[in-house]
What does this fold into?
Amino acid sequence: MPIDAAKALAAEPRSGEIHWERRDVQLYHLGIGAGRPATDPDELRYTLETRLHVLPSFATVAGAGSPGVISGLSMPGIDVDLAKVLHGGQRLEIHRPIPAAGTATATGRIAAVYDKGKAAVLVMRTEVADADGPLWTNDAQIFVRGEGGWGGDRGPSTRLDPPDGEPDRTVERPVREDQALLYRLSGDYNPLHADPEFAKLAGFDRPILHGLCTYGMTLKAVVDTLLGGDVSRVRSYTTRFAGVVYPGETLRILMWRGDGRIRVAVGAVEREDAPVLADTIVEHS
It folds into this structure.
């Protein structure tokens, strides 16, 4: 089998130093749509270095995401075709507020391997700490089509029951035509998000937005709408990537308040609210 679960799980973690500056945070924020209106005091917290706070989803790109998903796919016990790889979901746990500039150690390993029958799922965990202790833990759920069926653990279900009642808040966030071109400057240069010919080879009419860009846009909407703009209240953020977004479309973000958590669903307005993010939860203080 191309995936040897036991070998992958037993492999030594890989560590590397990551570093980020205020400029990296500002660029990420612009890449997820911050700065509109440009002079809005609430937006200046994302764009002006003298007021800068850090949206927790910046953790997915800090230091260009090192050790990163591609590094994880080269771990011992894993030999897969990248054309069969899909980013299925993301979970981020924040241990304390992320500083606007810093240096830290990122340690990556395969935390779980699940057999879904027609696919394998790898949970690629990156733990990041600086001199003061843990900062965040980032789990990427990676589906590898055609690599299941060895009789392994199926793993937990990530599907949730639909939220009860009407959403407490609904907002719409436009995606700029150049959003993917701007977001990719934070480190994900996959041509799927920029090159029309490559996108066609991958089965899409045109380049698609990065899933993690939608992930960041959604968290910003939740923080700004229901958490008083206070990024430090976010404790964890989990989602399942349910569909694609094309630059130029509009995200419709539905939010349901709960006890210490907010349920979220995201759809593409122009395609009859086709699901984009599902099973999404923001836990907060």
Summary: Residues 25 and 100 are 7 Å apart (CA to CA). The first helix runs from residue 5 to 10. Helices lie at 5-10, 22-31, 41-47, 68-72, 179-183, 196-201, 211-226. The beta strands are 14-20, 85-94, 102-115, 119-130, 133-145, 169-174, 234-241, 250-257, 261-268, 274-284.
